[in-house]
């Protein structure tokens, strides 16, 4: 059973000073002789967001007692990699709204978004060298490769209504959870942890990242567009068979299945209201939330390997707080 108290704010408050150190690194490493590079980068980074990946690296570093400056550098690296994936994702998905304002591709065009995403990837790899640690390079090189594979796999799965839960989880564990996993594993490596502790930290990140994405997909049918800062039904418009839709097809009537299947295959939101009703009435949201809760519990179970302190308590709070989020 989940035992942590639902407070993301208190967990993140522990690393508020550290996050300012990360922000300083981000600001300094965005410098470029090409003005558009900095303009596009700052546009998307300044939009805010949860900064969960760097936050996880900082929280695990704190839990394991690592206080070196490389925690700021590598936290900035994972944020750059994440930002690069957002820039590329929004072009691939033809998205128009993120975090409550126009996407970078809407603001600056697809070409600028793709190329600045490339800049952020290459700058991240330059920054990795500062750690002087081949294990760090190995973790981040593998993570970026797996993320790219996940993106391609998701592209292949577009408009395929036959995708099952296992296929869905394979995509999100590659596309989303892998960078969470890398963030927590990096902190363990910086702290010189044992292989057992490193693996526990990595599994915590993977489980938390999986839970985060499942809830994100739930909110596409159970969220508020104003709070979320994106258009509801975007996943359906892109032809993505996410867990709420998979569960709805499994639990609904033949007529329900036909409506959902047709929408996925056509990438149509014409029947969005009917599909929202199907997802809610079949209990599909509860199925998805239960799946996220199992992942959150898996994350919590990994924390027995870490020392007991305020930072590990913060890590204990995060899974249940993410389950209750509305945006």
From TrEMBL:
PROSITE patterns: POLYPRENYL_SYNTHASE_1, POLYPRENYL_SYNTHASE_2
GO molecular function: all-trans-octaprenyl-diphosphate synthase activity; metal ion binding
Catalysed reactions, as listed in the record: 5 isopentenyl diphosphate + (2E,6E)-farnesyl diphosphate = all-trans-octaprenyl diphosphate + 5 diphosphate
GO biological process, alphabetically ordered: isoprenoid biosynthetic process
Entry EC number(s): 2.5.1.90
Record flagged with keyword Transferase: yes
Xref: Gene3D superfamilies: Farnesyl Diphosphate Synthase
Listed SUPFAM superfamilies: Terpenoid synthases
Named cofactor requirement(s): Mg(2+)
UniProt keyword list: Magnesium, Metal-binding, Transferase
InterPro entries: Isoprenoid_synthase_dom_sf, Polyprenyl_synt, Polyprenyl_synt_CS
Stored PANTHER family: ALL TRANS-POLYPRENYL-DIPHOSPHATE SYNTHASE PDSS1, GERANYLGERANYL PYROPHOSPHATE SYNTHASE
Entry similarity comment: Belongs to the FPP/GGPP synthase family.
General function of this protein: Supplies octaprenyl diphosphate, the precursor for the side chain of the isoprenoid quinones ubiquinone and menaquinone.
Name of the molecule in the record: Octaprenyl diphosphate synthase
Annotated organism of origin: Ramlibacter aurantiacus
């Amino acid at each position: 059973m989940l035992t942590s108290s639902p407070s993301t704010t208190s967990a993140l408050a522990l690393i508020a000073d550290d996050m300012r150190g990360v922000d300083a690194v981000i600001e300094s490493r965005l410098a470029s002789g090409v003005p558009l590079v900095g303009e596009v980068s700052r546009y998307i980074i300044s939009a805010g967001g949860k900064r969960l990946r760097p936050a996880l690296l900082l929280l695990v570093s704190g839990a394991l007692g690592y206080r070196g400056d490389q925690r700021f550098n590598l936290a900035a690296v994972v944020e750059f990699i994440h930002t690069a994936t957002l820039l590329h994702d929004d072009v691939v998905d033809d998205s128009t709204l993120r975090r409550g304002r126009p996407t970078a591709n809407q603001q600056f065009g697809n070409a600028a978004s793709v190329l600045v995403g490339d800049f952020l990837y290459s700058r991240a790899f330059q920054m990795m060298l500062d750690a002087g640690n081949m294990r760090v390079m190995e973790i981040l090189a593998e993570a970026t490769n797996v993320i790219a594979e996940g993106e391609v796999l998701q592209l292949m799965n577009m408009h395929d209504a036959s995708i099952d839960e296992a296929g869905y989880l394979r995509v999100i564990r590659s596309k989303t959870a892998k960078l969470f996993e890398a963030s927590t594993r990096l902190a363990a490596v910086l702290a010189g942890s044992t292989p057992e502790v490193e693996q526990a930290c990595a599994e915590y990140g993977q489980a938390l990242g999986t839970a985060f994405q499942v809830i994100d997909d739930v909110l596409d049918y159970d969220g508020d567009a104003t709070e979320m800062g994106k258009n509801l039904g975007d996943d359906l418009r892109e032809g993505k068979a996410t867990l709420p839709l998979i569960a709805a097809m499994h639990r609904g009537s033949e007529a329900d299945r036909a409506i959902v299947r047709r929408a996925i295959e056509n990438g149509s939101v014409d029947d969005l209201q009917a599909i929202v009703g199907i997802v809610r009435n079949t209990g599909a949201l509860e199925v998805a939330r239960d799946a996220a809760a199992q992942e959150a519990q898996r994350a919590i179970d990994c924390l027995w390997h870490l020392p007991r302190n305020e930072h590990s308590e913060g890590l204990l709070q995060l899974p249940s707080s993410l389950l209750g989020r509305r945006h």
